[in-house]
Amino acid sequence: IYHITLTRVQRREQTDGFVAVVRDVTEQERLNQARREFVSNVSHELRTPLTSVKSYIEALRDLGDDEKDTRDNFLQVIAQETDRMVRLTRDLLQLSGLDRGQTYNLHQSIGLTDLLLQVQQRFQLQAERQGLEFSVVAPDDDDVFIVGNRDMVNRILDNLLSNAMKYTPAKGHVSVSTRVFRDRVIVSVKDDGIGIPKDDLPRVFERFYRVDKGRSRRLGGTGLGLALAREMVERMDGTIAITSEPEQGTQVSVTFVRDEGVEKAR
Ligand code: ADP
């Protein structure tokens, strides 16, 4: 897409010629388009739960005093939808912080063993409730550190684990494993759940992209988890990769930068 500005070059009353300035605005147009799509997605994502909350509130008003079970049911839906809006706005704020180039301390030294222990504690209960087998394998070496922002690292792992648990039916397996490779630490989250079709796989890191919108919504997803994870990983000079096979499962591997300075100093 080009914008052309034509200017007449004039001396006294006489036209000497024309100057044409041609600007390539393809990139700018692409960004505008992406922004329009994003705003439209956000509006839609918020309107859906709001509409549902509103209709449940109206239905509550019409309930008789003896319909306690139905009332509890409706209130639960309202609470769930509200939770999802809270998560959505939290994710949106985080994305917007990253977009605006907000500064984060990216030089924290994070001990891998402790990090994984905390992850295990955060997800153990959910795994049990869902009837999933859940394991976290920490490295043999107690003294492995990664460099980055602690909150970001936790958010990334939480997003990956909550996906693994969301998209894996009961009796399935979810595991976290780590590998140290030269100056990198690779953390992999693996599940044997529903998997992702080949055609969708390249797009799952896009904002709001979901393989199955209905399923993601039902399970409380915002469609921003992987997009956020990727942005945060890149901020910390890491990489993120996903492999998946429908009906077989999914593995997401994140590479963090190893903090060898701290390791040596200890
Ligand atoms: P959501 O909030 O919908 O889970 P994400 O950005 O975290 O959003 O993931 C995008 C989509 O990728 C999901 O809607 C789902 O279709 C797919 N996905 C992500 N992780 C997994 C997984 N472990 N197993 C199967 N599908 C997954």
Automatic annotation (TrEMBL):
Main location: membrane
Keywords tagged on the record: ATP-binding, Cell membrane, Kinase, Membrane, Nucleotide-binding, Phosphoprotein, Transferase, Two-component regulatory system
Molecular functions per Gene Ontology: ATP binding; phosphoprotein phosphatase activity; phosphorelay sensor kinase activity
Subcellular location: Cell membrane
Nucleotidyltransferase as UniProt keyword: no
GO cellular component: plasma membrane
A GO biological process held by the record: cellular response to phosphate starvation
Protein known as: histidine kinase
Organism: Alicyclobacillus acidoterrestris (strain ATCC 49025 / DSM 3922 / CIP 106132 / NCIMB 13137 / GD3B)
